[in-house]
Amino acid sequence: MAFLCSSLPSSSSIAIFSESTTDGSSRSSLPIPSLRFRFRPVAAASHICAPSIDKSTFVVSETVSEDELWAAACLRVRTFNELNPSAYNIQDHRRYLAEREFEALKERTSGKREGFTRVACVNASLPLSQLSSSSEDLCSACKFSDGIEDRVVVGSLDLNQCRWLPDEIAGTKPEGIGVDFSRAYISNVCVAKELHRNGIGYKLIEKSKEVGRAWGITDMYVHVTVDNEAAKRLYMKSGFEQETSEPAWQARYLNRPQRLLLWLGLSTSSIMSM
């Protein structure tokens, strides 16, 4: 599924559930020259034991504020990039990547990205109080305020209402007129590594189905690499089934792992969940 919009240059496979970029850009962990940009805190990633959390405090919703978009951008940088913490100017590089993703997220969710009818950034968050004692890095990087309390983005994805994603296999359902309005793709799926196995990925997918139905989406797609067994289990559990696979020559040409295209009929999935 993949990731980041116009942006994140990383070949990391950490905590990645799907792999489809919304602009066909490639990623690389090579340093990028320093540019002028607005400075915001972006903490370095570190290994932390999974905290004990109260799952009833999870909130999964569409992003409504720029602060939350920034927190989501920071989580994606943290997830999709393997950066050497001892590398020169590493903090500036992280800020640069986060600013890129943040600006691209704003462009997509505001309806300014050509070829996309609508894009929603769906986030899962927890109260800061649930995590502050055991996940200092996650809290400092991905914190935002919802106007009531401080929360931390711990999972994120994009729901893209469009005919196709750049440089990806295009879905075939539905056919005919209206495809731009009734087909959607999930991309940029990530969950904080400290909170794997808490059902966050599943909650994000379920919320995407809810948003898709509200938009009038009938057919939902997601791309996943052929060897990403965890992602395939998540999507199959959520009702997806394989429609086709990427030709090997295309994967080699794009210098990436081969991908599968998974399909979900929303009308069918809604009946199954009743």
Task: Give the structure's gist in a few sentences.
This protein is 32% helix and 22% strand. The chain has 274 residues and is α+β, with helices and mostly antiparallel strands. This is N-acetyltransferase domain-containing protein.
Describe this protein with a few key phrases.
single chain, 274 residues, Aminopeptidase, globular
Describe this structure in words.
The chain has 274 residues and is of the alpha+beta class. It has one domain: Gcn5-related N-acetyltransferase (GNAT) (Aminopeptidase). The chain is 32% helix and 22% strand. The protein contains nine helices and eight strands. Strands 1, 2, 3, 4, 5, 6, 7 and 8 form an eight-stranded mixed beta sheet that branches. Helix 1 crosses helix 2 (90-109). The protein starts with 58 loop residues before the first strand and ends with a helix. 45% of the residues are buried.
Number of helices: 9
* Shape summary: globular
> Between the first and last Cα atoms, what is the distance in angstroms?
28 Å
The ordered string of helix (H) and strand (E) elements is: EHHEHHEEHEHEHEHEH
- CATH-derived architecture: 3-Layer(aba) Sandwich
**What percentage of amino acids are in beta strands?**
15-25%
According to DSSP, the number of beta strands is 8
Estimated structural class: alpha+beta
CATH fold name, please? Aminopeptidase
Main sheet attributes: strand count, strand direction, barrel closure: 8 strands, mixed
Give the low-pLDDT segments.
1-17, 23-41, 43-48
Q: By CATH's scheme, which homologous superfamily applies?
A: Gcn5-related N-acetyltransferase (GNAT)
User: Can you give the mean pLDDT?
Assistant: 82
Number of domains: 1
Summarize the amount of helix as a percent range: 25-40%
Q: What is the CATH top level name?
A: Alpha Beta
- Computed Rg: 18 Å
